[in-house]
Fold these 2 entries.
Entry 1:
Amino acid sequence: MASMTLRDVQKSYDTVEVLRDINLDIADGEFVVFVGPSGCGKSTLLRMIAGLEEITGGELRIGDARMNDVPASKRGIAMVFQSYALYPHMTLYNNMAFGLKIAGKSKEEIDVAVKRAAKILHIDHLLDRKPKALSGGQRQRVAIGRAITREPSVFLFDEPLSNLDAALRVKMRLEFAKLHDDLKTTMIYVTHDQVEAMTLADKIVVLSAGRIEQVGSPHTLYHHPANRFVAGFIGSPKMNFIEGEVASIGADHVKVQLAGGTQLVAVDGSNLKVGDKVTIGIRPEHLAIDASGQIHATVTAQESLGDHAFVYTTYAGAPDGLILRVPDEDEYVHGRVIQLYADPNRCHLFSADGNACPRVKLQAAA
Amino acid sequence: MNDPMKAPIWVGVLGWAVALVIFMPIFIIAITAFKTEQDAYTLSLFFTPTLQSFHEVFERSHYLAFVTNSVIVSFGSTFLSLAIAIPAAYSLAFFPGPRAQKTLLWMLSTKMMPAVGVLIPIYLLAKSAGLLDSVTGLLIIYTLINLPIAVWMAFTYFNEVPKEILEAARIDGASAWQEMLHLLLPTSLPGLASTALLLVILSWNEAFWSLNLSSSNAAPLTVFIASYSNPEGLFWAKLSAASLLAVAPILCLGWIAQKQLVRGMTFGAVK
C-alpha cells in the first residue's frame, strides 16, 4: 500500500510535449480513474507511473521514495494491460507465478499466492490451461490474477475492459469495485468510458490534450465541473450548451439573454460584466417542458430507452441542439415546438474562456 | 470442382515440375556416385551400382576431418552469430533509436558487396593475425558474413512478439536478461530455430572463403569436394561421391527440421 505524488510532471517526445503540469496527490488505498478522450495522454501518464516511459520533467513519488529513475521492475507496482499481455507459452499457473518466481519466492509461497488469487477470481479450475484456450473475460481475470499475486503497493489498469463485450464489462466493473474493497490497495485505472469512471472512482482525474482539467469525486465533477470541457465530458447524454450574453448580474445569479428570452442562472457572476458572451450548461434531466419556459425548441427525434426517453431538439442558441429526458410514455412528434424551462439552481454558467462560474443557491426572491 | 480451398490442378503440376528441376542435380549426383568412372560419362539410369567411388574417396582423403571442420565452423559460427544478433535485434526491435532503420539497412548493404572485393585485405589480415588455414579464422569470417542475416531475421521475428508481454514481465520484476530468457526466446523460438538452420546451411555451403583461407588443417567439406576437380581431369563418379558425402549431413538436418523451418518462415503470417 502506498500513496503517490506527482509534481509538475511533464513528458515530451523530442519537441512534442504530450503531458504538462501534472500535479496530483493520490492517497493510500484510493481508487483513482484517469479519464479523457483518445490521445489526451492518460495512458502515457499511467505508463510513466509504471516506469515504462521516461519522465521528462517533474517528480514522481510512491510513498516517500522518488521513483523517476527507479526501473519498472523495482517500483512495487502491478499493471493490467488493455491487451492482457499474458505470456502465451505459459500455463495460467505459470503466468500468475512468474513475478513471484523472479522474486525468488519459495514454491510453497508461490503456490499459496497463486491459488488464493485464482480463487478470488474464480479461475482455479483453469490453472493448467494456456491463454489461447481462454475467453476474453477469463484472460482478463488471469491478467488481474497475475497482478494480485505479487501483492503490489499500487495497481495500474490500462483500459482493462475495453476488449470485452458490454454485458461482461458491467460484470467486471462490479468485480473491480469489489476487488478494491477487498484489497484496499491504491489503484489507478485508465479509461475513456466515463461510466466506468463514475462508478468506480473515489477520485476522477479528467485529462484533455495533455493537461489535467479537473480532479475531484464523481459527484463534484458531475455537479460542479470546473470548465466546459469537463461539463461536456462527464455525463451521458452530454450536457446541453446554450450560447448567450450577460444581461444583468445579481448577488446570487446572472441573467442571460438568449435567442428569444432570458434565463436566470444561480452562480457567482463577479468575474463577468454585462454584455459578456457566456454559455449556459444544463443537463438533459434538468430541462423540463413547461408553458412558462422561454426556450422554444423544435423536436427532431425521440429515442426510447424503456424506462425513459430522450428527445432531441434544435434551438437557435444551441449549435449542438438540446436533449431532454422525458418519461417514456410521452410522445413528441418531429417538428413540434416545445417550451423548455431550466431551473436556475440546476444551470451552470461558463465564461468565454470556458471556465465555470461558482454555483450558488438562488434566494427565493430572485 | 470449385472448392475455393483447393488449389487448381495446374498449380500442383507446376509445383512438382519446379521441384523436379531443382532436385535434378542432386538426383544426378546421387546416381553418378554409385557408378563406375566409365559409366559416369553417360546419363543412363541403367547400370550396376557399385561403392567403388566411395572406397576410393575414403582411401584418398580423410573425410571425417573435413566433416569435423564443417560441423565446427558452421555450428560454431551460427552460435556466435546468434549470440551477437539476438541482443542486437532485441535492442533494435524494442528500444529503437532514431537511426534503427538506417542501421538495419546498413547491415544488409554489407551483404551487397562482392566478397572478392575484400579478398586481398581479408587475406592479408588473416595472414598477419596467424589465422590462415585455422578453424578460428573461418569461424570469425563466417560469423561476420552471416551476422547481418541473423540480425535481420531475429529482428523480424522479435517484431512479431507483442511489446506488452515484455513490458508485463518488466513490471513483474524481470531484468532485461530474464525478459529475453523467459519470454522473448520461447515466444520467438520457431523463428530463431529457422534462422539457426539457415545460418548452418549458409555456412556449410560457403565455398569462397573456405577455399581461399584454408587448405588442409581447417578445410571444410567444400574444400574436400573441390579437391576432386584437379588438373588431371574430372573424375565424375568420385566427385559425385564426395559431393553426396558433403551434402548428406545437411540434407538430413534440413529434412528433420523442415516442419520447424516452414513454421519459422511463415511465423506471424498465420496467427
Entry 2:
Amino acid sequence: MSNEELDKEMKELLKQAIAPAQDSELRRDLWPQMLRKLDQQPIPVATVPWFDWLLASLAGAALLFFPGIIPALFYHL
Amino acid sequence: MELLERFAAGDLEAFEVLFRQHQKEVYAWIVRIVRDTGIAEDLTVETFWRIYKHRSQFRPDGNFRAWARRIGTNAALDHLRQAHPESELPDNLACASTGDPALGSERRRQVKEAFHQLPAKYRLVATLALIEDEPYANIAQAVGISESLVKVRLFRAVRMLRKKLNSLRPEVTTK
C-alpha cells in the first residue's frame, strides 16, 4: 500500500472518530477579557539583563586600569 | 500615521482596532486545533497579549493576519504540550457529526486515545491536515515551517498512529 493510500485510510479513520469542527464562530467580544489580562499581566518593560551590566562594568574597568588597550581596541574596530 | 504603524509604536487604540478586526479569525483557527471553545477563547486572548508584547518586532509593512495566525498557532501548540497526556480529548466543540455509527464506540475511543498520545507538534499538523482538511501551504505558514516538513510530520504522525493502533487492536489497521 502506498503512503498516499495509507494517509487516506488514516484520514477516514480519524474523521470517523474525530469529526471536523463545524461551529468555529466566536460568540462574544473578547476585548474586555483582553483588557483584564493587560491589567493583570502588564507588558514587561524591556530591561537590560544583569550580566550585560556586569560585562559593561568589566569592560569599563579594563579601559580605566589599562588605558593602553584603547589604541589596540580602535585598531581592531 | 497608519494603523499598523501606530500599533507597532504601542498605541492601545490601534491595538484595539486590530484586535476587533482579527479576533474572530484567530479564534476560529485556534479552536480547530484545541477543539475546546473555552480554551480557544483564553488562547485567543493569550495570542493578542503576545502580539502586543512583541509589537516592536512587527514590521508595519508586514502581514498582520499571517503574523497573528502564527502566534496563535504557537500559543495553541504550547497548550497542547502542557495538556495532561492522560486527559481525554476535548470534545465540547460542535462537530460535523457525532461520528460514524458504523465505527464502534470502542474503536473510536482507541483512535482518539492513540491520536491524543501523539507528540503535540505532530498532533497539530495531523489535526489541521487530516481532520480539518487545511491545505499544506496554510499549515506551513501558520507553523513557520516548509511544506516539505509539514508532509514529513504528517507521515510520521500517520506512522505513529498506525503503530499505536496496531498495538491496541491489530485488526483495526491491518489489511
